[in-house]
Every structure is written in C-alpha cells, then in structure tokens.
Amino acid sequence: MSDYFNVADIFGENVFNDTVMRERLPKNVYKNLKLAMSGEKELVLADADVIANAMKDWAIEKGATHYSHWFQPLTGTTAEKQDSFLSAPNTSGKVLMEFSGKELIKGEPDASSFPSGGLRATFEARGYTAWDCTSPAFVREDATGATLCIPTAFCSYTGEALDQKTPLLRSMDAINEQALRVVRLFGNTTAKKVTPSVGVEQEYFLIDRDLYLKRKDLIFSRRTLFGAMPPKGQELDDHYFGAIRERIGAFMKDINKELWRLGVTAKTQHNEVAPAQHELAPIYAQCNIATDNNQLTMEVLKKVAYRHNLACLLHEKPFAGVNGSGKHNNWSLTTDDGMNMLDPGNTPHQNIQFLLVLGAVMKAVDRHANLLRESAANVGNDHRLGANEAPPAIISIFLGEQLEDVIMQLIDRGDATSSIQKGKLKTGASTLPDFNKDATDRNRTSPFAFTGNKFEFRMVGSSDSVAPANVVLNTIVAESFKEICDELENAPNFDMACHDMIKRLFTDHHRIVFNGNGYSDEWVEEAEARGLANIKSMVDSTPTLISPETVTLFETFGVYTKAELLSRAEIKYEAYSKAINIEARAMIDIAGKQIIPAVISYTTELANSYLAVSEAGCDASTQKEILDKVSALLRETKSALTKLQTVTATASAMNSGREQALYFRDEVTTAMTALRTPADELEMLVDKEYWPFPSYGDMLFEV
Ligand code: ADP
Ligand code: MG
C-alpha cells in the first residue's frame, strides 16, 4: 500500500521529547531541565534561552512558522494565541526567526475574555501562561500551517488559577507528598516520587458532515434538540464491537497516525453501544500528560473528521433516546521505583499496604462523594447522570468478589486469612486453550469501579476535561493518606495499629461499596437507605464546590483557595445558563423558521388533497384524520414555542448566578421539552419530503 508507514518511525516525531532534548541540548542544560521537570530545581533564564532556541530550530525544521502557549481555560476546550517566530527586519530588510527563553516560560494572553468568575476584574485583565515543562511541547500541523505548541498553565496577575492545569499540578504535588509517607511506612526508602497514572477512554459519535450541516441544532448546541427515534435503535446491540465500516476505518487509521505523530499512545479502538458511536483509548500516562493528551485527542478527532467529510460529536448526549458518551478515567498511583500502589497482587489479604491504600480510597470517596460527583458535572452530562441513563448520579465503589470477601473477613472476624483465587475458564473445545480467569468479573454499571490494579471513574462527560476529576481524586486521597500517616507514623506498634486502621476504614466506609447492578431501581432505593446522595443535576451539585468541607480540603493541600472555588462555582452557573440559553434560542429559531413553516406547507397539501378527493365523491376520511392530527400538533407546537420565547427572555434578563441557572433548569428546559414533544410527533406524521432536516435514522445509519 502506498501510504504504508511504520508506527515506530512516526511515533512522537512531532514531539519535543526526551530523545530530542538529549540530542539537541547541551548536557548541563539537559540536566537542569530534568531537575526542573522533577521539581527539584527552578529553571534559570539562561537555560531557558538555550532550550527555547533548540525548540525553535527543531520546530522550524518541521515547518513551523508560529509558536503558541497552549492552555486550558475554564471553557472546557483549549485556547492559544499564536505568535510567529519573526523578528523585526534588520537594516538590510532581512528577518530572523527568534524565540527567547522568556517567551518560552511566560506568555501574556489578554485574559479579559476568558471566564474568571469575578477573580479578575476586566480593568486588570492581565493573565499569564506559564510553561508546564513536564508535558512535552509539540508541533501541530493543520490548515494554519505548523505551530510549536507549548503546554502551559494559565493564571491571573495575582496568581489565581484560571485554568484546569494549575490546580491539577498542585493536586499532583499534594498526593505525591502524602503517598510518599505511605510507602515509607512500609519500609520503602528508594521511591522519590509518586505520580497519579491516568488512562482516558474517549467515546464519540461520527456522522456525515453534509447531514450535520443541515442540522442547526447540532451546529449551535452540539446536540440534537429535535428528532424522533428511528425505526431501528440500538436494540439489536449489533454495533457494539461490530466490524468497523470502511469509511470509519479510514478515519480511525488517520486518527491513529496523527495521534502517534503527536506522541499520543492511541491503543484501542472499537464501535460502541449506540449506532455511529465509537471509542478510543490511549495507554495510560502521568496525570497531567494524560489530560493534555486527551484535549489533543478531542481536537484531532474533530479535525480529522472534517477531512473525511464527517462530523465528530463529542457532546454527552447528541441524540435523545440513544446511548450517550462519556469518558472513563482510569486512575492509579505509580512510584518512580516501579510500584503500582493499587496492585493487590495475587493474595490481596496479605498485601497490607494495598489494603491500607484501598481503605484510604474508600474513605476519601465516601467522605467526598458529592465533590467527586461535582467534578463530572457539566451541562451535557445532565442528560446522562441521573437522567434515564447510566451511570447513575449516585457515587458508589465496585470492588468485586475477591476484595469484598477480604474486606468482609476483616470486618466480621478481624482477620483476613484467604483470597478467592481465579479459576480456569473451560472453553469446551479441544483446540481452544483454557484461560486463567480474572478473580473478579467486570461490572459496567458502577461509577467508580476497581478494575484489577486501578480505579475507573466512569462519570466524566465525553466533552469535558478530565482535569477536575483528577484534581478531586488526587486531593481527597491525599487527605486520607495524610490522616492515616499522622496516626500511624507515631504508633508504638505499627503492625497492630495498621491492622486496626484497615479494619476501621473498611467498617466505617463499607456503605460506599456496591457490587450489584447500578442501573436498577432497587439500587436507588438502597442507596437512599444507606444515606448516599443522588445528585441529579449540575446546578444541584455546584454548591458542593464551595461547601466548608470542600474549602478546608482544598486549602489544606494548597490546591484551591476559597476565592478560586467561589469563582469556579460562578463560572459553572454561568456556563450552565449560557448553554441552555443557546439551546433554547436554537430551538426557537428551528421551530419558528423551519418546522412550523414545513408543517404549514404539508397541511396545505393535505387540505388540497382532502378537498380534491371529497369533490371527486370519494372517501377522504384518512386525509381528514391526518389533517386534524397534524393541525392539533401544529397548534400545540406554536403555543409551546410562544411559552419558550417568554421564559427564555425572562431568563436572559436575570443576573447571572445560581438563581438564573435554577430558572433555566426549572423553567426553560421544561419549556424546551414541551416544544420538542409535539414537534417530534409531527416528524413521524409529516411527509419526509417536507421535513426540513435529516432524521435520526439518516444521521445514525448513513455513515
Ligand atoms: P476497558 O474498556 O476494558 O475498560 P480499555 O483498554 O479500553 O479497557 O481502557 C483501559 C484504560 O486504562 C487504558 O487507557 C489503559 O491504558 C488504562 N490503564 C491500564 N492500567 C492502568 C493503570 N495502572 N493506571 C491507570 N490507567 C491504566
Ligand atoms: Mg473502561
């Protein structure tokens, strides 16, 4: 094949990675950079100048003309300002390509138009981007040409975090410090660093771009606001892991190639449950890099889709009635001497450190369940969490049979003496090998599942950043670790104190463990009886961000200040209101300018047909019946439209904040549903020739 490529050759070719640094930097500068990356020494400007120059030369060889500080403001996406390497022409009219250490380390984008939740008054709209030297710079190629992208954090003039990355890096420091104390308790003296490892599974939809362009709802609000269910839904389950169609295959091939060149370890790909839904997962990496890579993946998905005349939908619920999309955030803790603190080994009952870590995670999740829930709250996710779809909005932990058994031994008898072992799976065919089974089956319905040697947090929305979820996980577990270490470090008899501690953690927090079917109604009831919260909407979960416990937690570990949390809550309310406002206005536009006129045309044809047929002396009762029904629904649509216009106008006129968000949720989304219902019924009745945009069936099955 002509477009053959060798993965090993292209992997990371657009990344300023360790190999490139070693090749291009003087030994001492390389060493200093490494020290800066491990947080041991600050980078001096002279070194930064050398690094910047090497980066520039390398990027220019790859065709780069610009550089940009690439950051993640609180809009959910990435932002950047591109500067060219060009310097002012000299006296002979020649230009030089320049890039200084100062420009590498610090950028100054105009911050006034990014959400700050009142942290930064517009008159002092100064914001700074600061190089995150632990996440590698890369050259991105697209229609604008090649650009050297430098992953950065984004802060205000007074040092408050205005982005996702700053608190994430702070939370990594917090867990590093506390997790090191834990491994020291067990005699590890070699580990110098503990890092959260994260692997993000990303779900998305692909539809034909020509169809996409005919849907104003998708264009404006990234989800369909109207649309009746197609005759075939996902009831056949024939899409999940189904054969990948040619057109999608070509897309995936390009995605992989593009991501590999950018150093993203795209590893698995498959069709998901819903028609036109797919998933991609990379190999896990250090938390902040995994977060950056996931943002990059979302960008690349959209761009490559465009090249294939496809549209990639990252919204959590692009199609009502069809499975939505999420992100699974796989999380574990890795020491720099190669240990995974969440690896139970074959005999977890003997692995005391693991049991202690497990107890610490149970405590953290039980105590801060609402905060973890909040970290996955965004507007789109309201259609998944707590709506008619999984995972439910109740936080619980799945541990599986083996660990549950160990825990129960400890709780009931005070001692754990055995671990259920994995069995052999008999295939029953002589030519097939028998397998070793995992000790525990999977549970797909749990929002927080232990899966072998990591926890998988499955609530995050498909379009969202995984940063907030990891900020919370890192910090709440750091807090548990701290409390445990404060006690155990001073215990006269460590073994006994540790044993008691584990038993206490399991006993006190066992209520958060649930191994059954998280999608069942019984679980909702049982969870309530256990006192576990079920927070069904983003607006209801936001107050947790600023509760006294949250503020204390984050301030203790230097992850957020109270002011930063207040601003984040403001931003969330505002983001919610803005998104619903856009959706409501898009519906008003579509109903008023597309649906109602189309239905009027159709009723005219029906009326003409009815008259003509009656005049001919024939039975026109069917025409009459349809005409009556369509006219009634048309009337209902029109009055629902008027109502939506009224409440949307009222909502927009309110001051931004919690009140406004609540009004949008309670009044506006209700009015939106009331408009959608008759309109979707009309779609089923009106001649397809008249319907103004592609149907669900067209979009989901014509890829
Ligand atoms: P599944 O769909 O069965 O959950 P996938 O292979 O699609 O599995 O995704 C699993 C994700 O978990 C991958 O991104 C993988 O790299 C990541 N992962 C595996 N081990 C760890 C670990 N120890 N810590 C964090 N992430 C991990
Ligand atoms: Mg998974």
Word description of this protein:
The chain has 703 residues and is of the alpha+beta class. The chain has three domains: 7-162, Glutamine synthetase, N-terminal domain (Ubiquitin-like (UB roll)), CATH 3.10.20; 172-227 and 234-424 and 433-560, 2-Layer Sandwich (Creatine Kinase, Chain A, domain 2), CATH 3.30.590.10; 575-701, Four Helix Bundle (Hemerythrin (Met), subunit A), CATH 1.20.120. The chain is built from 22 helices and 17 strands. Strand 8 (266-271) and strand 9 (277-282) form a beta hairpin. Bound molecules: adenosine-5'-diphosphate and magnesium ion. Magnesium ion (MG) binds at residues 201, 328, 456.
Throw out a few tags for this protein.
single chain; 703 residues; alpha+beta; Ubiquitin-like (UB roll); Creatine Kinase, Chain A, domain 2; Four Helix Bundle (Hemerythrin (Met), subunit A); 3 domains; nine-stranded mixed sheet; six-stranded mixed sheet; 22 helices; binds adenosine-5'-diphosphate; binds magnesium ion
Nutshell version of this structure?
The protein is α+β, with helices and mostly antiparallel strands and 703 residues long. It is built from 22 helices and 17 strands. Helix 19 packs antiparallel against helix 20.
Topology (elements, then pairings):
Layout: H1 7-10, H2 18-24, H3 27-37, H4 45-61, E1 64-71, E2 79-84, H5 101-105, E3 106-107, E4 127-131, E5 138-142, E6 145-156, H6 165-185, E7 194-208, H7 209-213, H8 216-221, H9 246-261, E8 266-271, E9 277-282, E10 285-286, H10 287-307, E11 310-313, E12 327-335, H11 352-367, H12 369-375, E13 397-398, H13 400-413, E14 424-425, E15 435-436, E16 448-450, E17 455-457, H14 467-488, H15 494-509, H16 521-530, H17 538-541, H18 548-556, H19 562-615, H20 621-653, H21 658-685, H22 696-701
Parallel strand pairs: 1-6, 13-16
Antiparallel strand pairs: 1-2, 3-4, 4-6, 5-6, 7-9, 7-10, 7-11, 7-12, 8-9, 12-17, 14-15, 16-17
Bound molecules: adenosine-5'-diphosphate and magnesium ion.
Adenosine-5'-diphosphate binds at residues 197-199, 201, 268, 281-284, 328, 330-332, 340, 453-454.
